[in-house]
Structures are given as structure tokens and as C-alpha cells.
Write a structure and sequence with these properties.
two-stranded antiparallel sheet, 2 strands
Length: 67
């Protein structure tokens, strides 16, 4: 039963909500909050506009950029 609850929680964390992104000239731009909730860098070449991870573009990186 614990596994089921864990899977549901993970699914909820991965859901993309309308507040997680906006459109800019036809491109989807994810917010910093979405990236943090995702939990790690996606590895996009050059890094995402609002990537909170350092260094950017390093897939699986979980080190948040310090302001």
C-alpha cells in the first residue's frame, strides 16, 4: 500500500499546471518554481531560461543556484 501512495505523490509532483509555464513567441517557457518541483535539471542544451540549477544544462543536477 505504501508504494501506491508513493507513486501517486510522485505523479502529482510531475503534473504540469497552468501556473508552471507561459508562452513566449509560441515557445513553452517553464517557471523556476516548476523546475524546483521537478527536482533536477532536465539537461536542456544551454539551460532553460528559468533554470535554478548550477551549472545549467547538466542533466540530473540537483544543486540549486545561490543568489
Amino acid at each position: 500500500m505504501f508504494k501506491e501512495e508513493e507513486n501517486k505523490e510522485r505523479e502529482n509532483q510531475n503534473k504540469i499546471l497552468p501556473s508552471d509555464y507561459y508562452l513566449d513567441n509560441g515557445r513553452v517557457v517553464f517557471t523556476e518554481e516548476y523546475h524546483i518541483r521537478r527536482g533536477s535539471c532536465c539537461g536542456s542544451h544551454g539551460g532553460c531560461r528559468h533554470c535554478p540549477y548550477h551549472p545549467r544544462g547538466l542533466k540530473g543536477n540537483t544543486t540549486l543556484y545561490e543568489n
